[in-house]
Specification:
135 residues, mainly alpha, ATP synthase subunit I, transmembrane, transmembrane helix, membrane
């Protein structure tokens, strides 16, 4: 494993862990304090879905440049979106209590983690291109 790949994985897992902790427990505290009627009991644990998904991505990650890396990234985003829709569908069909709050909260977490991953990998790809240009 190349040093750059190892550094990337370490930084990604650290950032993902911090985002999960901050958004999970911080989001729960914010919702309990500001909007207690809209608080969802699952709120602190929702980011774990995205955390484990990120860990799966890191496990599948290989130093693929160009289209292979892009395909892996986009494929994981599509798979996550389909699983997201499936989980929302299951929850709304099985639980009749406060579906709207759950869906909106889960969607907010989806967008937060999507933004994190997109920005993180955009910076990583830019570094790869810059390093290839210097060689």
């Amino acid at each position: 494993m190349e040093n750059g790949e190892r550094k990337f994985k370490r930084h990604y897992v650290i950032g993902l862990t911090l985002l999960t902790l901050i958004s999970g427990w911080g989001g729960a505290a914010l919702m309990l304090g500001a909007y207690p009627k809209h608080y969802v009991e699952w709120l602190p644990y929702m980011p774990l879905f995205f955390y484990f998904w990120g860990l799966i991505f890191v496990a599948l990650f290989r130093r693929n440049t160009g289209r292979k890396m892009t395909r892996l990234f986009l494929g994981m985003k599509v798979a996550k979106m389909l699983l997201f829709v499936l989980l929302i569908g299951l929850y709304t069909s099985l639980v009749d209590v406060r579906n709207t709050e759950f869906v909106v909260t889960f969607l907010a977490y989806y967008l937060i983690f999507l933004l994190f991953e997109t920005v993180f990998f955009w910076h990583y790809e830019n570094k790869l291109k810059k390093n290839e240009g210097n060689e």
